[in-house]
Amino acid sequence: MTGTFLGADAGYENRWEAEKIALELHDTALTTARTVVVHDVDGHFAMSFLLPVPPSDAVVTSLVEQGFGVAVRGASSGRLVGPEALRAGASAAAEAHQYRREGRALRFQGQRSLRGRHGVSDILAFTAIEAVLPRGTHTVDTRGNLTPFFRDGKLVLVVD
Fold it and tell me: What's the superkingdom here (predicted)?
């Protein structure tokens, strides 16, 4: 997957709070993010964003001023700034997103088209979701809110 991965860590101990802040950042400073993910990093929660282009210096500076450790991982460059205690979490979140190891996706490509009941084949064809579990599931009632997660290099949706 091409793009730039931005990890941000402010040491959130509550997943809900981290998810709320990640969505706020997406709605304000990181509006071009194609994927927004929250990660469990060493007992707390950090976030990551897949951006089509590297963030501006102003965006990175703003995040640092808000108390975030920030890691930017691109194809040819990297950057690690902010409070030293939070840099490792930011880096771990960006890396987990880049290699699709772990994390819960709050925003992903094709998500807005998922309202109501959809066939698994349509979900796989028209969104960034790459697998639906349990295997053999034929339709999914999205209830307007799907939160797939990364597992083994894929974005996976688990349905009840």
Answer: Bacteria
